[in-house]
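Journal club side-thread
Mid-discussion, someone asked how the predicted structure for our own chain would compare to the paper's figures. Pasting it here so we can look after the session.
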Amino acid sequence: MRGLSKALRIFLALAAYLVLVKLILTLLPGIFRSPAQAKVFEWPFLALWTALGGLGVFLSERTRFAPPWEAGDARRRLLEPAVWGIALGILAVATDAATGWSQAVAAKMGLPSIHIPFPASVIVYPGGAIIVEIIYRLFPVPVLLWLLTRLGPLRAKENTIFWTLAVLTSFLEPLGDLGLRSLGFGLATTAAVFAQDYALNFLQAATFRKRGFLAAIVVRVAFYVVWHILPSLALSLGISR
């Protein structure tokens, strides 16, 4: 690994964490709430995420994304992104408490909860945060940015192209929230959940650009701590949200 950049070494450490999660999960069968959750941790998909994410990191270094780590910058790379993620997590929990939308989704799926049980949630959700970042940002945004800025008329518009991609790709995950309408939820609830998911994704895109992909993942992990992990702990203690 000596010949690899720091960014690629950090990414490979994150990929190694995914492998560790997979190995631990072999001892905890049946913990996922849906087949789709389990599938993303299968070996072929872990290889795919590693390849896609590695390519994204490689091209991000060539399209002026911030490096994922700089000495003495833990506040910008870790603390502040974690605070943003926690704040969005608190907002999501408050919205869910007011509307009950997550319980409706769980009931439709025939599940007691959308949350993976504790203590497996502690290792699974950080892994999920890495995979989500690869799928929605770390691969598509730098790849598209690199391809588009190779075109003559767009070479000088890298920053404009990035923000356009950030706006558009941030819609990908929230589109699934539109299914709340089919469960009988009104426009206000659907719009609130959609807007919060969009804000999370756009914040991660902006953080990726300005503070590197590690900080963007920290935002999602902190969000998952509040939105998934703490509720899973409460459920294990017999405390329902």
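Post-session note: Residues 56 and 138 are 5 Å apart (CA to CA).
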